[in-house]
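Box 3.1 A note on notation
Throughout this textbook, protein chains are presented in two layers. The first layer is the amino acid sequence; the second is a token string describing backbone geometry. Keep the layers aligned when reading.
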Amino acid sequence: MALPKRRHSRSRTRKRRSHDALSAPGISTCAECGEPKMPHRICPNCGMYKGRSVYSLDAEIE
């Protein structure tokens, strides 16, 4: 296994790590109820997706 001959400098290490930061997920609002939700996912508040009802909240309570 290869070993480094010299230590990497702080600036070189930090340049490499500059792309490791996490970004916040995008949040959109539901067209039906106005609650925040993740894009391209069912609304957790009303159960709608693209203007149609995918699941009703009453059925889950059973």
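Strands lie at 28-29, 36-37, 48-49, 52-53. The longest strand covers residues 28-29.
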